[in-house]
């Protein structure tokens, strides 16, 4: 199994936001769900992703696998099935890229797929370039 970059993205971001005060009031929470899944909650107040908005996205990652993400400007939340923790952690990269980008179309890697976040056509593109319909609702 090759090492994952996903935990480092979140860890590096969080450590760069710590200023001696902010971390006492705002933070990152990773918890388990009662349906055998994970939930990530991030308080972005005072960070580079504060006020970032992203409509709720529901991704079908395969049989029994799913990922939901959303950002309302005051919080970032993501949840996933028990086997998709890496995808959940990698999804935070989307908010980071949106916060430093002026382009409307962002792509990010979720495991074996590249996902188009524009939502314009509901297509996902795999690493080999083949397109397929996603599980967006």
From TrEMBL:
InterPro entries xrefs: Imm53
Name recorded for this polypeptide: Immunity protein 53
């Amino acid at each position: 199994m090759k090492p994952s970059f996903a935990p480092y993205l979140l860890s590096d971001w969080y450590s760069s936001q710590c200023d001696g005060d902010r971390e006492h009031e705002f933070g990152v929470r990773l918890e388990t769900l009662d349906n055998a899944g994970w939930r990530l909650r991030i308080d972005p107040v005072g960070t580079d992703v504060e006020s970032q908005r992203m409509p709720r996205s529901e991704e079908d990652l395969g049989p029994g696998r799913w990922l939901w993400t959303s950002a309302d400007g005051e919080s970032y939340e993501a949840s996933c099935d028990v086997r998709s923790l890496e995808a959940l952690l990698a999804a935070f990269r989307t908010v980071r890229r949106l916060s430093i980008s002026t382009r409307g179309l962002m792509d990010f890697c979720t495991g074996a797929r590249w996902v188009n976040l524009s939502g314009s056509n509901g297509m996902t593109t795999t690493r080999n370039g083949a397109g397929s319909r996603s599980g967006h609702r």
